[in-house]
Amino acid sequence: MQTEVRIVNSRKLLSVFINLPARIHKGHKNWLPPIYHDEWLFFDPRRNKAFNYCDTILALAFSQGVAVGRIMGIIHHPYNELKGEKSARFSHFDCTDNPDAVSALLKFIENWAKEKGMNQVTGPYGFSDKDPQGFLFEGYDDIPLIDTSCNLPYMVDYTVNNGYSKLVDCLTYRFDIDFMMPDIYQRVQQRLMNTHRYTILEFKNKRALKPHIVPVLRLVNETYRNLYGFYPMEETEMHDLARRYMPVLDPRFVKIIMLDQELVGFVVGLSNMSEGIMRAKGKLFPFGWYFILQSLNNSTQLDLMLGAVKPGHQGLGLEISMGLRLLESARTAGIRTIETHLILESNQRMRAVIERINAPVVKRFRVFTKKIPGN
User: Fold this and answer.
1) What's the pLDDT tens digit per position in 272-294?
2) Number of domains comprising the chain
3) How many whole angstroms separate alpha carbon 81 and alpha carbon 315?
4) Strand pairing partners for 338?
5) Residue environment code for 160-187, b if the CB has 16+ CB neighbours within 10 A, otherwise e
6) pTM of the prediction?
7) 232: domain CATH number?
């Protein structure tokens, strides 16, 4: 059946673009809608500064006059310059079970990227690693996490059928909070604390936590710079991100390590609020905020959002010390399980820490790539 691809060039079409996944995933019990308030801000170039340094394009696929799929194309010029690449990205890619529409959308982005002088397309990947990255590849029946993909399996199959292959996988692990702690972890914790060099900061309220959020994000810049797809945040982006997450952060689940007056490590956990977002259908008003707040307060799963240790202090057990303190706070709060943030498959050091406690992989996300013919 003939597929027509249209560029999103009006607020009306942008509304179709933003709201289309709700129709695609009708009846999909494990689909997590976005927070629509944030979604509109994301696609507003006046509010999302990434539009200033990236080339972008949004497109919709129509079949018999009905929207059936969507895709976003991104060329991140600063990242390409930093890495010496000529790469375009596809993002926000979703479609009904329609292989022709999937092919049409991918071909549209490939042609656009080729016209811009690019020689490869990768995705799903957004402006940064804070956007959903990769298609969900394993774990379709598992509880979803915020800011991750909730695609249906056919999206992977159709993408592969269009010549895309694996670039990188990201994994999440989950473990029961009452797991048997390896003795070596306790010894590492005790040895580290006996040095009296490091101080672990814990927080009882947001007022005490707030001054540390931007320094934490500065450390993210320093420690994540060699990870796939990461590009350093600007100060304005850090402050925007801090404002976005402060309302839902629980100070009990943030641990920071200081050496004298220097922040050298942190871990941030967030109560899983997927159930509340699903019940709210992604809308904060009139009652969505209540469902989300209720979910945050009643959740028995803690999602690890971020964690890092400053270069020069890695391998000393700082992440273990912060993890043990986080476990204590989680148990006190009634948390039963913890799921990790996305960990690159190639990050053997972090995976070894998690796998030492026999935590299983529960989700796998895959980023795909394709060379553009003729470039």
Assistant:
1) 999 999 999 999 998 999 999 99
2) 2
3) 31
4) 175, 302
5) eebebeebbbbbbbbbebeeeeeeebee
6) 0.91
7) 3.40.630.30
